[in-house]
Each structure stands twice: as structure tokens, then as C-alpha cells.
């Protein structure tokens, strides 16, 4: 698996921990900061420390695990630590974790002293195939996802397949949702490969393929003026379901579980509005429905979900905007969906 060259930064797959340490050593950084959560601190940091050997020119910043902590308070905590340890403009932030760490660490670094360098070492499947590539950083406010953020590219990404060995099965499946999305939006052959694979632990080649797809899309359109919107398939409904679950459920949905629900709803909208065939809808429902437990969506919640969708930053002029499918492997951008259509799609999922 070759290194992928993204917009001015490399994505390493082979010997990636050694590549990380080389990068740090050759980067002429005054000091570096490794941001982890409690799980990646326990499971992933030891391998990095071992490779660093006696290099102790760094400080650790650890936050509690979970999407509910991707917020301004923990972000202030990161800024304060950078200040306390006198991070200067030649400091580097190493984001060692899943999408929560890469989004928040990237955001904190991209704003500290008007921007210092950061790299991602993604440790979840979801962050390897999606969150670490493309330069979106951000935090949530009032559980509104990624409402504050920047487009800032990392200086490099280091993907290490071995980190997935300690990842719980539910988190693996969370990442699988984004891989399925990559197939559905632009690559029917990839969708076919995924269907024929064991998705309880996708192999390295499938991960590489997914990163290639994501990277190709974001390099073409880094700031989401056009084709990058393809990646939003499943995310209009999915983000609303995820936000609602974060607020109300004692054991909230993972990002991928919410996106899986969103993809079923938006595939239904595609069948109604943009030419997706009935057999294709049935296939999508069978594949996705077979992987994720059914989530109880109550009809009484549909209006609330539409209200959340209205606040989505993908919208314009107060209208809810979706990326839909023309067929499996071909998406179509910028479709306004009415509340009635969205409610119908939620009812389709719930039925
Ligand atoms: P996450 O970072 O919360 O990680 C999921 C869980 O796995 C956490 O409990 C974490 O501690 C644990 N974990 C991480 N690595 C582990 C390992 N190797 N072994 C054991 N446990 C481990 O969540 P995520 O699913 O990685 O990312 C979701 C976030 O990513 C969301 O906030 C979403 O908005 C964001 N995201 C961003 C982009 C982007 O383009 N920036 C794209 C997709 C998703
Ligand atoms: Zn996503």
C-alpha cells in the first residue's frame, strides 16, 4: 500500500509509527503535544512512546472519551495546556485518537496562535477512513454537530491498522458505515467488494480503498463548494438523529449508527426523487439493515428531527438540503427536501 499524497500532505500506511517519529524528528519542532482520550492513552500511546525511545520533548493532554466532550470547555482546556506549557508557533499537536480527538485537536491547533501544525494518528476505523482526511476540524455546541470549526489540513496522517485490534466491535461497525457511503456515492465496484467482505473487521486493502475515495473527493473540492457535498449522503438525517440521540439516550448512537439510519432514509428519498431503482433501495436496506441494530424512531420525534435538520450548516435559505443517489455508485447534489418528504423517509425507516 503506497503512501497517498493529499493536498500537500502525505497519508502513510506502512510503518506509520516509525514514519510519525521521523516526521517529528525532521520537522524542527520546538516541542510537541500528544492529545489522547483515556482509551487511546491506554491502548495506543504505549506504541508511540516505545518508538519515541528517550525523546521526551513532549507533553501529554488527555480528555475523557466521548462525543459529549467534543465541546468548547474541553477545547479551552487544550488551549490552556498549550499556554501553560508555553507552546510556541513551532510546536506540533499530535492527535492520537478517533474523530473526536482529530476534530477537536485539529480545531484547537488551527486556532492557537492563529494556527500551529498538527498531524493525525487515527485510531478508530471511522477516523482512518474518514475523519482524519480532508481538513475539517470542529467542535459541537449545544449538541449541534461541528457547528464551530475550520478547514485546516493536517501536516500528515499516519494510519496504523494494528490500532484497530483493541477497538470495540460496535466502533468498527461505526466506521463501516462511512465505507459503505463511499461505495454508494461514487464507486459501485467498491460497494460490491464491501458486500462480499467480512465487515466485522474490514481488511487493510478496503481501508486503503476508502481513503483513496475520500481523498480524491476532498482534493477536488477542499471547502465543499461542489463535489465534496457527495460525502454528506446520509448525513442530513443522520446528524439530526445523532444529535437527538446524544441529548436523549443514556447510551447514544455512534456516528456511524446514526449515518446508517440516515443513509436508509436518504436512499428512500433518492427512490422517490432522483431515480434510485426500487431493487437498489431494497439492496441498500438489506445490506445496511443487516449490519446495524434497529433503532426505535418514534413518530412523535419526527418534527423535532426536522427542526434539528433545519439548523444543519449544509442548508441555505432555510431549506433542508440533501445529497441523494441516482443509482448505487452515483450521487446527485443539492436536493431540497420538504418536512413532509423527510417525515415520510423517517416513517419508511421506522416501518
Ligand atoms: P471517537 O473518537 O469518540 O472514538 C470512539 C470510541 O473509541 C471512543 O470511546 C474512543 O475512546 C475509543 N477508541 C478510539 N481508538 C481506540 C482504540 N484503538 N482502541 C480502543 N478504543 C478506542 O469517535 P469516532 O467514531 O472515531 O469519530 C466520530 C467523530 O468524528 C464525530 O465527532 C464526527 O463528527 C467526527 N467526524 C469528522 C469527520 C471530518 O471530516 N472531520 C468525518 C467523519 C466524522
Ligand atoms: Zn460521517
From TrEMBL:
One of its GO terms (biological process) is chorismate biosynthetic process. PANTHER family: 3-DEHYDROQUINATE SYNTHASE. GO terms for cellular component: cytoplasm. The keyword Metal-binding does not apply. It comes from Mucilaginibacter gotjawali. Its EC number is 4.2.3.4. Keywords: Lyase. It is an enzyme of class 4 (lyase). SUPFAM superfamilies: Dehydroquinate synthase-like (SSF56796). GO terms for molecular function: 3-dehydroquinate synthase activity; metal ion binding; nucleotide binding. This is 3-dehydroquinate synthase.
Amino acid at each position: 500500500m503506497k503512501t497517498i499524497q493529499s493536498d500537500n500532505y502525505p497519508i502513510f500506511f506502512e510503518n506509520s509509527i516509525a514514519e510519525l517519529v521521523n516526521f517529528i524528528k525532521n520537522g524542527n519542532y520546538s516541542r510537541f503535544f500528544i492529545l489522547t482520550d483515556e482509551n487511546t492513552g491506554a491502548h495506543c500511546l504505549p506504541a508511540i512512546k516505545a518508538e519515541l525511545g528517550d525523546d521526551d520533548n513532549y507533553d501529554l493532554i488527555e480528555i475523557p472519551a466521548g462525543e459529549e466532550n467534543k465541546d468548547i470547555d474541553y477545547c479551552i482546556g487544550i488551549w490552556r495546556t498549550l499556554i501553560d506549557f508555553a507552546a510556541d508557533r513551532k510546536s506540533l499537536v499530535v492527535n492520537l485518537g478517533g474523530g473526536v480527538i482529530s476534530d477537536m485537536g485539529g480545531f484547537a491547533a488551527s486556532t492557537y496562535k492563529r494556527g500551529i501544525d498538527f498531524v493525525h494518528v487515527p485510531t478508530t476505523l471511522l477516523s482512518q477512513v474518514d475523519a482524519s482526511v480532508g481538513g475539517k476540524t470542529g467542535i459541537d455546541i449545544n449538541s449541534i454537530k461541528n457547528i464551530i470549526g475550520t478547514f485546516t489540513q493536517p501536516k500528515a496522517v499516519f494510519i496504523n491498522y494494528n490500532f484497530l485490534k483493541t477497538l470495540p466491535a460496535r466502533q468498527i461497525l461505526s466506521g463501516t458505515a462511512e465505507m459503505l457511503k463511499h461505495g454508494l456515492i461514487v464507486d459501485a465496484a467498491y460497494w460490491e467488494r464491501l458486500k462480499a467482505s467480512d465487515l466485522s473487521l474490514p481488511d487493510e486493502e478496503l481501508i486503503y480503498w476508502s481513503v483513496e475515495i475520500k481523498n480524491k473527493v476532498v482534493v477536488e473540492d477542499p471547502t465543499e463548494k461542489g463535489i465534496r457535498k457527495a460525502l454528506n449522503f446520509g448525513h442530513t438525517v443522520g446528524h439530526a438523529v445523532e444529535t437527538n440521540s446524544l441529548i436523549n439516550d443514556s447510551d447514544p448512537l455512534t456516528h456511524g449508527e446514526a449515518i446508517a439510519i440516515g443513509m436508509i432514509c436518504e436512499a428512500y428519498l433518492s427512490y422517490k426523487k432522483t431515480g434510485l431503482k426500487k431493487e437498489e433501495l431494497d439492496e441498500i436496506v438489506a445490506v445496511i439493515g443487516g449490519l446495524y441494530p434497529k433503532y426505535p424512531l418514534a413518530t412523535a420525534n419526527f418534527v423535532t428531527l426536522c427542526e434539528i435538520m433545519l439548523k444543519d450548516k449544509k442548508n441555505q435559505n432555510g431549506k433542508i438540503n440533501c445529497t441523494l443517489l441516482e443509482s448505487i455508485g452515483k450521487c446527485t447534489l443539492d436536493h431540497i427536501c420538504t418536512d413532509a418528504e423527510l417525515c415520510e423517509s423517517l416513517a419508511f425507516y421506522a416501518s
